[in-house]
Write a structure and sequence with these properties.
Strand order of the largest sheet: 2-1-6-5-4-3
Radius of gyration: 15 Å
Order of helices and strands: HHEEHEEEE
Largest sheet: 6 strands, mixed
Number of helices: 3
Length: about 140
């Protein structure tokens, strides 16, 4: 855990959530929002337990964005335990190319959760993203 006081961590985290909500609305792109806020040297925990760099994750984000170029994200709720932010979100987009477990040409909705560590420069230093089978595609 970060040594900063909880009030400072929470205020930063709340500012960060407002920042990414604004970025998502401004760009209309979940991929662009993630690309802009994920630090190149961040630790990104993949669902398969692999850990990759922020730079590698940025490359994956750009590649995957072409499958759902109109992907929109809405933030449902946020929690601020210690030095982390936990976000529950809903993402919607139309699949335009082959992507695991989705049908091409159809709109898909998925619930997802993100766990983030936000740095003082308002970038993400550590990231966990979950597309849980319990948050099934519709």
């Amino acid at each position: 855990m970060n040594a900063e006081p909880r009030e400072v961590l929470r205020a930063r985290s709340e500012d960060f959530v407002r920042h990414i909500e604004h970025l998502s609305a401004q760009t209309g792109s979940m991929a662009e929002m993630l690309y802009r806020t994920l630090a190149p040297d961040a630790r990104v925990h993949m669902q398969n337990a692999e850990i990759i760099s922020g730079m590698a994750a940025r490359q994956q984000i750009q590649s995957n964005a072409s499958a759902f170029p109109d992907m929109e994200i809405g933030f449902v709720d946020a929690w601020y335990p210690d030095d982390r932010v936990i976000l529950l979100a809903e993402a919607t987009g139309k699949a335009l190319r082959r992507f695991p477990v989705v049908r091409i040409g159809f709109r898909h909705e998925v619930r997802c959760a993100f766990v983030l560590r936000v740095r003082p420069d308002m970038t993400v230093g550590e990231f966990w993203g979950y597309l849980n089978p319990g948050f099934a595609f519709h």
